[in-house]
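TA notes, week 10

Several of you asked for a full example with nothing omitted. So below is the full record: C-alpha cells for the whole chain, then the designed sequence directly under it. When grading your own attempts, check the secondary structure regions first.
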C-alpha cells in the first residue's frame, strides 16, 4: 500500500467517521424525543432510562442510514481535498482519477460488509433487548395481542396441509384462549376437504412436536373425542414460529438463512425474509455506489467553478438512489419483483451511472 493510498484511506475514514458522529447525534436526539413521548408519558421513567432505550435502537437505525453516512463522508472528504488543491497536485503528478477514488470505494465496501455482518446482528440483539425492557416497563399493562387478531400458521403435509390458528404468539407458545388445528386432505389439492378440527387449551412447540393440553378432536359427522394431553409432529421450526411475530428487520444476518428454510418448510411466506437477506447482501454495493456518487460530484476542479453545485447534485443523487431502492423494496414486498431484482437493481444502476460519468469526464 503506497503512501498516497494510505493518505486517501485515512482522509476518507475521517470524513465517514465525522458524518457518522453527526448522524448518530441527530438520530439519538430524535429518538430520545420519540421514546419519551411513547413511554415516559405512560409510565414513570428517568431520562437515563430513556437514553438507554434509545441506544438499544441505535444500531439498526444506524445501519439504515449507512448509505447517507458514506455519501456525506466521501462528499466532504473529496470536496475538502479539492478546495485545498490536493486533487490538482495528485492529477498533475500523473495519478489517474481511478487510482484516487479506489481507496474510498474500497473503504465503502468494507463498511458495507461490516454493517451487514457485524452491525446488523448487534442491532437485532439490542432491538430484542429493547422490546424486553419496554415490555418490563409495561408489565402491569396488557401486552398481548387483542382478541380477534389471529396468528395463522400453515404446514404442508404429504396428504394435505394443516392450518393452525391462535390469538397470537408468546415466545414459543401460542397464546390462549383456544388453539385450532385444521387438517385438510382430499384427492384434489385445489378443493381441500376438512378432515378434522382439533382444539386445545394450550399449545407449546418442543422438539419437533406440538404439545397440546386439553385437546379435543372434532371430525365431520362424528362425535367429539376428548384426547387430553397429546403431541403432534410438526415441521414448524422454532425460528419460523418466533420470527412470525417479528419483522424481518429484527432478524440477524446470520440467522436469516435458517429462518428462511424453516419458514419455507412450515409453509409460511418467506418473501420478507428473502428480501431482507438480499438487501443485506447488496449493502456493500449500495455503499460503494454512494461513494462513487460522492466522488463523481467532487472531482470537478474547484478553480473551474460550480464545485458546490456539483456536490449538491451528488447529495441529491444519493437521496434519489435511496428513494428508488425503497420503492423497489416495496414492489418486492408486494411480490411484483423478485427479491434479487428489488435489492440489487438500484445500487447497480447508480454505481454504473457514476462510473460512466467518471469515465466520460476523465477519459473522454
Amino acid at each position: 500500500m503506497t503512501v498516497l493510498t494510505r493518505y486517501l484511506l485515512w482522509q476518507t475514514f475521517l470524513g465517514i467517521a465525522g458524518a457518522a458522529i453527526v448522524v448518530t447525534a441527530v438520530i439519538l436526539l430524535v429518538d430520545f424525543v420519540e421514546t419519551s413521548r411513547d413511554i415516559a408519558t405512560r409510565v414513570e421513567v428517568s431520562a437515563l432510562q430513556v437514553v438507554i432505550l434509545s441506544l438499544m435502537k441505535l444500531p439498526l437505525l444506524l445501519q439504515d442510514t449507512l448509505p447517507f453516512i458514506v455519501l456525506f463522508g466521501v462528499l466532504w472528504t473529496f470536496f475538502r481535498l479539492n478546495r485545498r488543491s490536493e486533487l490538482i497536485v495528485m492529477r498533475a503528478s500523473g495519478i489517474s482519477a481511478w487510482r484516487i477514488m479506489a481507496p474510498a470505494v474500497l473503504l465503502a465496501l468494507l463498511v458495507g460488509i461490516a454493517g451487514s455482518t457485524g452491525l446488523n446482528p448487534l442491532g437485532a440483539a439490542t432491538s430484542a433487548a429493547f422490546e424486553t425492557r419496554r415490555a418490563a416497563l409495561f408489565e402491569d399493562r396488557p401486552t398481548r395481542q387483542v382478541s380477534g387478531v389471529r396468528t395463522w400458521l400453515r404446514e404442508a403435509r404429504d396428504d394435505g396441509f394443516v392450518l393452525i390458528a391462535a390469538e397470537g404468539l408468546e415466545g414459543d407458545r401460542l397464546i390462549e384462549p383456544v388453539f385450532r388445528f385444521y387438517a385438510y386432505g382430499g384427492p384434489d389439492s385445489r378443493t381441500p376437504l376438512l378432515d378434522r378440527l382439533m382444539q386445545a387449551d394450550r399449545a407449546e412447540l418442543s422438539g419437533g412436536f406440538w404439545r397440546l393440553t386439553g385437546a379435543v378432536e372434532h371430525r365431520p359427522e362424528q362425535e367429539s373425542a376428548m384426547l387430553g394431553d397429546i403431541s403432534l409432529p410438526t415441521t414448524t421450526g422454532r425460528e419460523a414460529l418466533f420470527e412470525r411475530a417479528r419483522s424481518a428487520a429484527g432478524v440477524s444476518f446470520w440467522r436469516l438463512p435458517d429462518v428462511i428454510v424453516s419458514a419455507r418448510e412450515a409453509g409460511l411466506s418467506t418473501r420478507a425474509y428473502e428480501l431482507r437477506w438480499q438487501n443485506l447482501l447488496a449493502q456493500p454495493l449500495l455503499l460503494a455506489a454512494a461513494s462513487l456518487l460522492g466522488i463523481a460530484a467532487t472531482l470537478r476542479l474547484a478553480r473551474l467553478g460550480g464545485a458546490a453545485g456539483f456536490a449538491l447534485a451528488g447529495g441529491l443523487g444519493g437521496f434519489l438512489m435511496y428513494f428508488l431502492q425503497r420503492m423497489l423494496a416495496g414492489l418486492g414486498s408486494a411480490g411484483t419483483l423478485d427479491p434479487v431484482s428489488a435489492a440489487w437493481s438500484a445500487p447497480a444502476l447508480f454505481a454504473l451511472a457514476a462510473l460512466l460519468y467518471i469515465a466520460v469526464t476523465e477519459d473522454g
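Residues 151-236 form one domain. Use that as a sanity check on your answer.
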